[in-house]
Amino acid sequence: MKDIVIHLLAQAVATLQKQGRLDESAAQSISVERTKDPGHGDFSSNLAMKLAKQVNTDPRELAQKILAELPQSEVIEKAAIAGPGFINFYLRKCAYLSLIAEIREQGINFGNSDVGHGQRIMVEFVSTNPTGPLHVGHGRGAAYGDALARVLRAAGYDTHSEYYINDAGRQMEILAVSVWLRYLELCGKEIQFPENAYQGSYVRDLAAKLKDKAGKSYCIDTSELFKALPDAKEESIDRLISRCRSHLGDKDFRALFDVGCDAMVNDIRQDLAEFGVVFQAWFSERSLLDKGDIDKSIKTLEENGHIYEKDGAKWFRATDFGDDKDRVVLRANGAHTYFASDTAYHYNKAERGFDKIINIFGADHHGYIKRLQASFEALGNSPERLKFLIVQFAILYRGGEKISMSTRSGEFVTLRDLRDEVGNDAARFFYVLRKPDQHMDFDLDLAKSQSSDNPVYYIQYAHARICSVFRQLEEKGMPTLKDATPNYALLKASQEFDLLKTLSRFPEVVESAASGFEPHQVAYYLRELANVFHTYYNAHPFLSSEDDVRLARLGLIDATRIVIANGLGMLGVKALEKM
RNA sequence: GCGCCCGUAGCUCAACCGGAUAGAGCAACGGCCUUCUAAGCCGUAGGUUACAGGUUCGAGUCCUGUCGGGCGCGCCA
Q1: Which chain B positions come under 7 Å from a protein C-beta?
Q2: Does A465 contact strand B, using a CB cutoff of 7 Å?
Q3: Domain containing A46 — which CATH number?
């Protein structure tokens, strides 16, 4: 609908350009907004104000000239100059009426567009180490990333979502050792469980599972195991890892490692699936290692002259690309760093040909961005292809107290806990209601106790109410919409036009949410739509009106139902038919 | 110390690449159920957009500085 106004302005500008009264760049300044104040009409443009500077005239005078060249349109009732030089457009009411049929015809596709032009875009998110269950902090990234992927799809981007599994690093070895120690404990051995190993109870569960499956085949005499460990915690656990590996041998160690890794990955996958977050691909870090991609990308960097050696390690000259420090890719002990595998992963992404590669990071990883952009560019890729979005922390409060969380210490509220307590829909909506770069206070008591007046229910309720009307319609044996062609011109109430106007905005909201990577816009829009609907519902009866009016109204609320369902779908929230 | 993010009503948050009188929800107060779900609707009240400068027709939005909060600054991931 906005496009119509833009098109009209473009024609006026073209005419003025032909007359030599505007220069060629003028068309770029065309922008049209929805008005906030109905007194300013339906749409507004600040075009004259923008151009006045270039042409060096009075904005209102220029607006007058534009207005004079504006072609006639059957949807425009009038266009007028207001304030410092705005051009306001007032639409004919009938312009909105055709929308109802359009929405009902397009159904679940209404709101979709082609602004993405099928551009291939990849979104990677969550990607936590599979060393423990997801906690509520990860939930925000999951809800945001998934909603973003859905919004991008709706806007016509060929969107691929992916989870990167860090299944090759030291953290996973620590998990393996943690499981092994708990397992030894179950075998009746005396153990000392390091405080920097994984403390969570799920480690004991994994150990029990291992014992059920493998009996005592991983059991050893532990009398020497804890002797002469270094005082430094990190060195100490590294020593335990190597002792574990030499006791069990590479093959059994790998098996032990896989027990922990597979269990955690499956757990995360299922957790996310229950949360409505489904990835198109799960990409294994180890697969990069096995294929030699990590060595390959280090070698490529080396060939391009971006690598030097110092203190027995290989360093990437990240400072040449704007990072504040150079970064190690290959440690003196021969192990590659996390950064090295991530570099290889992003090289792999680039090779897969995505036009845009989006990474959603938690705020705690933002220091990592510069070096990744650096290596991405150093490998010959255009830095514009790689985009990082930061999701700020959700700070948890319980009983007014901030909860500190750490995976290692095992003190955290899991995403699963949250879902059990407040429900999937409320949890997802709560997360996605905040724009990602805003710090977020997540009061658990509030989320739980307020679950009945969480905004998501407000929207779902609007949907359920509409469904209920249609159920009653059938129960009463009244004529349905099925074979009817309602006369929408019978809609005259102000609430009906408020609703129509709000419905007409939906495609614009989706486009804007996609282009700004801000799915929360859809959430706020839905709240507004629900409010306009509830107001209408309270003001006018649908079923008791005359036949032809009733059919027109039913068509309108059917369109409303479709838009609510489509919008909720983009946020991964269910549209309930009954509440 | 350096870097990134943030600061908007009592609380939690919006504000569409700088636009017109800064908006919602919760909490508070006052109304609305013989009629399609009151998980709803209507109204009232609530603000020097942290602070100080600057840029311009116009700033919550852009620039500089100050204060306050979060996060990061490893041959960890």
Answers
A1: 2-7, 11-17, 19-21, 23-27, 35-42, 57, 69-77
A2: yes
A3: 3.30.1360.70
Q: Is residue A410 over pLDDT 70?
A: no
Q: Which residue is nearest to nucleotide B19 (CA to C1')?
A: A46
| Strand B closer than 7 A to residue A317 Cβ | no
Let me know if residue A373 belongs to a domain: no
Nearest nucleotide from residue A328 CA, by C1' atom: B75
> Listing from the earlier edge strand, what are the strands of the sheet with A86-91?
A32-34, A43-45, A86-91, A76-82
> Biggest alpha carbon distance in chain A?
95
Which H or E run contains A484? none
In a domain, A323, yes or no: no
Q: What is the 3-state secondary structure (H, E, C) of A104-122?
A: HHHHHHCCCCCCCCCCEEE
pLDDT in tens, A486-541: 999 999 999 999 999 999 999 999 999 999 999 999 999 999 999 999 999 999 99
The residue segments making up the domain with residue A7 are: 2-92
pLDDT digits (tens, 9 = 90+) for A378-404: 999 999 999 999 999 888 777 777 776
Average pLDDT over every residue of A284-305: 95
Which residue type sits at A458? Y
Taking each helix axis from N to C terminus, what angle separates A494-515 and A520-539, rounded to the nearest 10 degrees?
A: 170
* Residue A494 belongs to a domain: yes
> Would you say the C-beta of A56 is within 7 Å of strand B?
no
Give residue A469's pLDDT band: very low, low, confident or very high (50, 70, 90): very high
Q: Distance in angstroms, CA of A566 to C1' of B9?
A: 33
Closest residue to B25 (CA to C1') is: A455
Q: Which of residues 473-532 of A touch strand B (CB under 7 A)?
A: 508, 512, 516, 518, 520-521, 524, 527, 530-531
Q: How much is the ipTM here? A: 0.96
DSSP strand pairing (A158-165 vs A281-284): parallel
Q: Is residue A498 a part of any domain in this protein?
A: yes
Identify the domain boundary among A92, A114, A137. A92
Is A456 exposed, middle or buried (CB count within 10 Å of its CB: 0-12, 13-18, 19+)? buried
pLDDT band at A415 (very low <50, low <70, confident <90, very high): very high
* Cβ-based neighbour number of residue A390 at 10 Å: 16
User: Residue A385 gets which letter from DSSP?
Assistant: G
Nearest nucleotide to the CA of A392, by C1', is B5
The set of residues, in sequence order, having a beta carbon less than 8 Å from that of A404 and lying 6+ positions away, is: A411
- The vertex-A436 CA angle with A344 and A499, nearest 5°, equals 130
Any idea what the CATH number is for the domain that residue A476 is in? Answer: 1.10.730.10
How many domains, chain A? 2
Indicate if CB(A82) is under 7 A from strand B.
yes
Residue nearest to nucleotide B33 (CA to C1'): A538
Single residue among A92, A127, A159 that ends a domain in this structure: A92
